[in-house]
């Protein structure tokens, strides 16, 4: 990667405010989906769609993994991390590479 080789990789990938906000929103949506699906209402079955759509396209591809709730969390986390890295990259490029 070009830019700031002295900065650690995780900070370069996820150190942007927009990327961190996106990761926080994805985490909140996942927690909400689990809380909503724990209740006995008719909309509970669709609650898991929201975090998957928020972290698409990687999460949709990762949902092919078997395993129930752990695979769901893994798919959403993988999608969120990939998308957050892209958000940080775009943000850095739009600012002209400056912090």
Automatic annotation (TrEMBL):
Q: Transmembrane ranges?
A: 20-39, 46-65, 71-90
Transmembrane helix among keywords: yes
Annotated keywords: Membrane, Transmembrane, Transmembrane helix
Question: Among its keywords, does the record have Oxidoreductase?
Answer: no
Q: What is this protein called?
A: Integral membrane protein
- Give the organism the record lists: Streptomyces tunisiensis
